[in-house]
Amino acid sequence: MTDNKEELVQRAKLAEQAERYDDMAQSMKKVTELGAELSNEERNLLSVAYKNVKTEGSEKKQQMAKEYREKVEHELRDICHDVLDLLDKFLIPKAGNPESKVATGDDRNSVVEKSQQSYQEAFDIAKDKMQPTHPIRLGLALNFSVFYYEILNSPDKACQLAKQAFDDAIAELDTLNEDSYKDSTLIMQLLRDNLTLWTSDTAGDEQEGGGEAGEAGGN
């Protein structure tokens, strides 16, 4: 049974009152397809229906995009936390304990290489997906630079990495998220403190003609 024009218009009005704009648009579409000239009221109903369907669809898409972005950020945080957890609990202790320091090179080098690779992969993800002021990115830079200094005995690389992370964050202070402001500025301070310590240690070693590099934190 075919709906007549009056019934379709009435159905569209009811749908508008219920804010069911998809149903409203469907009813007015059928009215238009009947081929008769639309009254001012009917044209207005058609316009209102499709305007709200379009707006509603746009808002849904924006919400979906926001939810997807938050999902990706959450997954990135989980990945970075997992890598840091593995590094802190398993890889770095094996690379830094006294036994591994005096062990024959192959075993220790293997663990160190895996640690460095894990750090680098996590750091590359952070640099690609996060602002320089993001606390996770800053935290990775801090830990990675300490790894270079304490485990790899590469003070120049440690200073270079820490300085770059600090300078990049300073250059984009206006992007600091209010929720993470405290964490980000604390890590930036730690980066600067390490730079001060490491550069003074390096200068002292050069004056003494060489020697063992100082550590950012004692074990």
From TrEMBL:
Residues 5-212 form the 14-3-3 domain. SUPFAM superfamilies: 14-3-3 protein (SSF48445). Pfam families: 14-3-3 (PF00244). PANTHER family: 14-3-3 PROTEIN (PTHR18860). Belongs to the 14-3-3 family. This is 14-3-3 domain-containing protein. It comes from Globodera rostochiensis (Golden nematode worm).
